[in-house]
Each structure stands twice: as C-alpha cells, then as structure tokens.
Amino acid sequence: MSENSGDNPTRTLVHLVRHGEVHNPTGVLYGRLTDFHLSDRGRAMADRVAEYVTGWDITHLRCSPLERAQETMKPIATALDLPVSIDGRVIEAENYLQGKRFDGSRNSAFTNPRNWRYFRNPLKPTWGEPYKQIAIRMRAALADAAAAAQGHQALIVSHQLPIWIARLDVEGRRFAHDPRKRECTLASITTFTFLDGRIVAVSYAEPAAELLPAGKSQKFVAGA
C-alpha cells in the first residue's frame, strides 16, 4: 500500500549500496574490467547488508552489471525474495587507467610518466568519465528506482564514485573532491529520501563497519 494518503506526500526511499571488498591482491585498478569478484570478507559484508535490510519495506532491486556488484546483491535478493533489474547506468565510472596498479610500488600508475597526462586536470577529471556525466546517469537511475518503488523502498548496488557523485549532485556540492575523503566505505548504504518525486534528505550507514580491515582507510580503493 502506498504511503500517500489524502494530502500527505508520498515518501519513497532509495538506498545506494556500495559493493563489498574485492579480491585484488595485485592492487589493480579494476574499473569496469570483468572477472573481479568479492573476497571472502566481501561476501561476509554482503551477508551483513542482507541481514541489515531484512524487514525493510523494499519492493524494488537493481544492480550494476559488474560481478562484484551482482555478488553483493545476491544475498540481499535472496533475503528479500525479489527479482533484480540490471541497470548499466549505475556501473563503475569509466577510467582510462583500468588494469594498472595503484599499490604504491615502482610499477604504480602514479610513478609512470606516460600516465601523467591523465592527471593534468583533476577537476574534470582527465583520467576518465566526467563527473557531470556520472551525475546525469545516476540521477536518472535514482528517479526510475523511486518511481518503481513509489511509496516504498528501492535498493541499488553500485560503486563508490558513482554513489559519491550522486550524493554531491543532490546536495549541490562541487564534484571536484579528494577521493580519500569520500564517505562511502565498503558495503555502506547511502539513502535518498524522496517526497512526491523530489529528494529532500540523504543519510548514511555502515552495516559492515566491523568487518573493515583494522587500521586501513576504506574510503578510497582504486577501481571500487
């Protein structure tokens, strides 16, 4: 039943879930590359999110086409007994440096002069998909999910940068930012509250916080 009654506005929640930890021992920026899967800890994170949202009034699920996102969605969809729509608009941002290492070693993309041209304008950014383009596709996906779950809740599994850009867009903040300061850790949930189709609030939760590696900042992971 819709939450709309008489003159009361229709309240709909859309939850953007970042996928769990990926098995990536060589520190590759995996971007949109295939065959990058959740680690054991990542699967535990996905299970934790599924437990966290069980009982919520979620009626619609959609997911990035990448494996790590679909693997995070799997226990959620099972717990909620709902079908999942694959939505290419919530995929990871395009990055020209995908496949390269970002682990601080001598072979890191940061230390190779041939890659420096990609870092010439971090405000754009020149290493990949423009922030504005990410914002446009995420805004459309959020609106469609809200429409599909009108009066209830929707959940989308996506990736760190698209989720963060969606939040900056809604909050009217500048897209240029320090990646290390994104509030979007692994398996986190960023929730957008819609009233009659208009976003009025954003909230944030970390249901798998205790599963994060001790002493490591998880706010920025290459290719996440």
TrEMBL record:
Protein name: Histidine phosphatase family protein
SUPFAM superfamilies per the UniProt record, alphabetical: Phosphoglycerate mutase-like (SSF53254)
Cited Pfam families: His_Phos_1
Tree of life domain: Bacteria
GO cellular component terms given for this protein: cytoplasm
Gene Ontology MF annotations: phosphatase activity
Record-linked InterPro entries: His_Pase_superF_clade-1, His_PPase_superfam, PGM_Phosphatase
